[in-house]
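Summary of Year 1 activities. Much of the first year was spent building the evaluation harness for sequence design. The harness presents a backbone, in tokenized form, and records the residue chosen at every position. We chose the following record to illustrate the format because it has been used consistently in internal testing since the harness was completed.
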């Protein structure tokens, strides 16, 4: 039986190669890409292996699981990592997420902005965190055909971005999206291009909002071609989720 660290190292190598090839094809510098290893469903021990293998960004999508897992990490491992929350948020859970996450990528409505700002403010006051919470706005790229993967409709993004930028304890960093289900490669490419265009419009008002989080295990090459800065890869690194 292959030991888990070796398996993760091999998977990580494959993903880095895919990113390098996609960057070469798109004429982009791999240094422009941040790889977020999405560790949902996998134990803290895997996060420790990944940190040892050089991973510095991890993603989680359920508050309860994420909070417990982050708390389980040895302090010296936690310090190395930037923890991204990428899942659907309920406003009553948002305050808790602000205690352990460095980044929340899935902000999609005004109520969440308020809850996160309040939670981050409380965590800062108590010394549970030391920096503002970094935020991306999740955009629904489904054009109505595929609601339910979360995200604000594009028309609502400017006002939401203004609300994040105005919040005392939050920092607006950009946009995030999950490709709508059931699209072929051209459809996914068009969706990621809509996200890139929306990002460009947003940066006219908010130059600091430079992140474009798009691309997962199945479509990271397409995301690299269409301007992603952050890739969220679960299965490709950790293996299939049960
Ligand atoms: C699980 C998840 C991912 C990773 O998906 P894979 O297909 O396993 O790479 C990316 N983004 C979000 C929001 C997720 O919930």
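For this record, the design step produced the sequence shown next.
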């Amino acid at each position: 039986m292959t030991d888990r660290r070796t398996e993760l190292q091999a998977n990580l190598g494959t993903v880095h190669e895919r990113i390098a090839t996609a960057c070469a094809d798109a004429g982009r510098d791999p240094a422009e890409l941040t790889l977020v290893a999405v560790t949902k469903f996998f134990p803290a021990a895997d996060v420790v292996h990944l940190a040892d293998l050089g991973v510095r960004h991890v993603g989680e999508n359920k508050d309860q699981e994420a909070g417990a897992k982050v708390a389980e990490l040895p302090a010296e491992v936690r310090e190395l990592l930037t923890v991204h929350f990428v899942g659907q948020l309920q406003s009553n859970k948002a305050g808790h997420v602000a205690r352990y996450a460095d980044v929340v990528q899935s902000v999609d409505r005004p109520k969440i902005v308020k809850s996160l700002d309040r939670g981050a403010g409380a965590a800062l006051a108590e010394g549970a965190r030391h920096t503002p919470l970094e935020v991306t706005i999740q955009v629904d790229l489904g054009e109505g055909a595929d609601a339910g993967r979360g995200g604000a409709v594009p028309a609502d993004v400017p006002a939401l971005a203004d609300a994040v930028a105005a919040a005392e304890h939050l920092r607006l960093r950009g946009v995030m999206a999950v490709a709508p289900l059931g699209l072929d490669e051209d459809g996914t490419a068009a969706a990621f291009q809509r996200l890139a265009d929306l990002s460009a419009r947003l940066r006219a008002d908010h130059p600091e909002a430079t992140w474009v989080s798009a691309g997962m295990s199945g479509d990271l090459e397409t995301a690299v071609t269409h301007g992603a800065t952050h890739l969220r890869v679960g299965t490709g690194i950790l293996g299939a989720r049960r």
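The pocket of pyridoxal-5'-phosphate is lined by residues 38, 40, 61, 86-87, 178, 216-218, 232-236 (CB under 6 Å). Quantitative recovery figures across the full test set are reported in Table 2.
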